Amino acid sequence: MTSFASPLVRSASIKQDVVIRNTVNFHRSIWGDQFLMYEERKDREWEEQLANELKEEVRKMLIITTQHRKLLELIDAVQRLGVAYHFEKEIEECLNHIYVSYGHGDLWIKDNDLQGTSLWFRLLRQQGFNVSSGIFNKYKNNDGSFMESVKDDVQGMLSLNEAAYMRVEGEQVLDEALAFTTYHLANILENHTSLIEAQIHQALQQPLRKRLPRLEALRYIPIYQQEASHNEALLKLAKLDFTLLQDLHRKELSQISKWWKDLDVSRNLPYVRDRIVEGYFWILAVYFEPQHSDARIFLMKACNLVIILDDTYDNYGTYEELEILTEAIQRWSMSCLDMLPEYMKLIYKELLDVYKEAEDLLEKKGQTYRCYYTKEMVKEYARNLLIEAKWVNERYTPTVEEHMSVTLVTCAYAMIIAKCYVHRDDLVTEETFKWVSTYPPLVKASCLILRLMDDVATHKEEQERNHVASSVECYMKQYGVTEEHTHELFTKQVEDEWKVINKESLRPTDVPRPLLMPPINLTRVCDVLYRRGDDYNHAGKEMINHIKSLLVNPLSG
Ligand SMILES: CC(C)=CCC/C(C)=C/CC/C(C)=C/COP(=O)(O)OP(=O)(O)O
């Protein structure tokens, strides 16, 4: 029942007030309508048939390769080329066999093969096996420094550099290995020009641990092709699979562009950012596989509604209007529609419709609990956005602790992680939703990384308008430190949070390991979007190239 103090009863009086709103001029979409239309590939059927034949060849290779060093190289190539999702069972069996054969590490090391040892360590850690980093002490002198011979082994250093990014808190040997290899690899860069130099350059820009699987496939296909020992069937499969996926992704983007156009956001809600294509890049980073197509479509709708809500709370809505919207979202009922200001009706109706559509699908499978938990997180999100609006309204700068308790929710990642599981068919149970909604360490680390990287990248622009103080401003004010110092501290904290993610990815995990990939991939997106600035709102040259190569240009070669 409506309480007397409910903000819903105040909506009528608001209409008569002169309303002063923030104005933010987000530039229009740089992509125009180019993704609206989609034409199916003519050759799709026979290409799928060929891909199936190639898959069987690669599967056989995974089964018959018995030499462990060679098997690791094959698995690494399969993973980097972006086709590992076809062979999850085989890869798990192979790596489990290798883990059982060598235990935590001592049995693996036979010679001074730093490259092989690092590869062994990285692949097993990536698969969740807690192998010991102590193995790398064998490459150190008695005084604790790395041996001179390590410096001369460029491939070994590159492999160790990538492996060290699997570090967890307290692994000093990996911290040191990272500093050592980063320093010496950077020195090499100044002296040579070759394929290995290109690889070093890319590794130093972004380690494999933080790269998005689709972009890594694009990057690695030409490198693998140049390797004398490459396998022709695997290379062909990687190229064909990329093309088939690109076709499916274009189809989905066309579908979602039509949905957005039908909402007519640019006319009905002109203050909202139009970033459908950049948003699809974000979602594609979470899931790219064909079996997650329904999940992607739902995520696109639900996440673009998050953007609409974010812009409404951050920029356009008055505090009184936002109170009403928040209350209506808590009640989640079409009966609240009439109480809302006109422009908010479209937002509210679409929000309820998108979840109703999901619920109808889930009902048939007895999985409506998935919508229940996710809706509760949307309600929590709205309540916390309202707290931010209150701070802005009262010109209040919160303490860092207050700020984080609210903005870890409004960064939206925990809610988006829950959304990733709504239409996922395998492994998800009610426990999965209970897990994510309590902000366990991995989810919290992912939220923190987004919050810190987003704020470092966007706080200057946000402060030019009447935006809530970012974590950067709060920290500077509370501790009386400079912006530069704050950026440095936050960058260090991001690395520490990655250690938490690595630790939480080791077996036994809280939820089945494949369910950790959406939060891990969401964390990786931060490194792509916010490392150089704000590539979501203002896609730079590199981001535009990423989108074009994933969604527009045919794969070359
Ligand atoms: C499909 C799609 C749209 C995906 C986006 C994923 C998503 C909703 C991320 C939530 C965080 C967010 C709103 C970031 C950008 O806005 P901001 O920098 O204004 O965020 P802030 O207001 O929290 O600082």
UniProtKB/TrEMBL annotation:
Q: Which GO terms describe its molecular function?
A: germacrene-A synthase activity; magnesium ion binding
Q: Which residues form the Terpene synthase N-terminal domain?
A: 30-204
Q: Name one GO biological process term.
A: diterpenoid biosynthetic process
Which InterPro entries did the record assign? Answer: Isoprenoid_synthase_dom_sf, Terpene_cyclase-like_1_C, Terpene_cyclase_plant_C1, Terpene_synth_N, Terpene_synth_N_sf, Terpene_synthase-like, Terpene_synthase_metal-bd, Terpenoid_cyclase/PrenylTrfase
Keyword annotations for this protein, in alphabetical order, are: Lyase, Metal-binding
Which CDD domains does this UniProt record tie to the protein?
Terpene_cyclase_plant_C1
Q: Which domain of life is it from?
A: Eukaryota
Alphabetical list of SUPFAM superfamilies matching this protein: Terpenoid cyclases/Protein prenyltransferases, Terpenoid synthases
Required cofactor(s): Mg(2+)
- The name this protein carries in UniProt is Uncharacterized protein
Give the originating organism: Lactuca virosa
